[in-house]
Write a structure and sequence with these properties.
Elements (H helix, E strand, L loop, with lengths): L27 E5 L3 E8 L5 E3 L5 E10 L4 E14 L2 E8 L10 E8 L5 H5 L6 E15 L16 E5 L6 E6 L1 H12 L21 H16 L2 H13 L16 H19 L2 E2 L6 E2 L6 H22 L2
Antiparallel strand pairs: 1-2, 2-4, 3-4, 4-7, 5-6, 5-8, 6-7, 8-9, 8-10, 11-12
Amino acid sequence: MSTAPRQVEKAALDPIGLCHSDKMPTDVQFIGPANRHAITLRPGSNLPSAKGGPLPRISLFVEARLKDAQFKTEIIQLSFDAYLGDVLVGQGAVGPVTYLTTDGQQVEAAFTCPRSALPLFLDPPPGRVELKLRFSGLLRYQHEFTGARAEGLEAAGVWHQWPISNNLVHELTVSIARSDWYELVVAPLKLGGYLIASLNLPDPTEVPAWTAALDHLESARRALTTGDAPAVFGYCRAAIDALPGAKKNIFDNMAVGKKREAIDALTLSLGTYLHSGRHVEPTTGATGGDFPVDRQDAALAYNETVLLLSHIASLVLP
């Protein structure tokens, strides 16, 4: 038996899912014949859901709102490509949807995704998870205008088809709190466990000596998002090599003892692993490594490097 989708609580704040962009499209307008604003799509209030299996499926919700009751518009089908960052992670459709009103209604926007895209869902870019939906498809309209208001339109009282070309940009960003993403999408897809850890990476404006290491770490994250595993290995190794004091004096601020020896050995060991995997040197573009690497290897390399640098910062910085 199905249950109604849980509603977003507008007063709830998610401290680890704050929006990191103030430029994302909050709605998309469909401008019809004779430059008529027909309908608007915006992110819906229902939370997402997901279903695993041979063909994983994610369900988002959008609000479809009619602009003018005298310019009736129905969605025959709006197909869309779903992007996480710049990576295409699925394809889906909205519709058919009839009897749209000026009050708006919640509409499911479900898409299926190839299994090759699933590792990206475990480690999306920081902040709220933002999925970009790019629409094309077919609408239809019927109007009740007469005289000058009907100029440029087909006959009144009759339904007319209206194609939405993929040459025009109709893009909507659906933003999801990070905690909801892991609970409502990642967990039902049964992608395995996921790690949530508190990081202690410094602010480069306050600790300029860490700027290069943090820049390489950000480049590694972007490479992971685009699926470039060798680049992830190269940037992660570069991040370690760019630490102040690298390679022999990183831990000079620590008291001499077993703990210092152990974390130093761990850092050297991770650097050796990153150098052994197939990698691309960020500065020279040279390639190296003893074994091929894939997305899973890259996710391990990135996560280990982030956690290690965070721990190093907690040990050596004031």
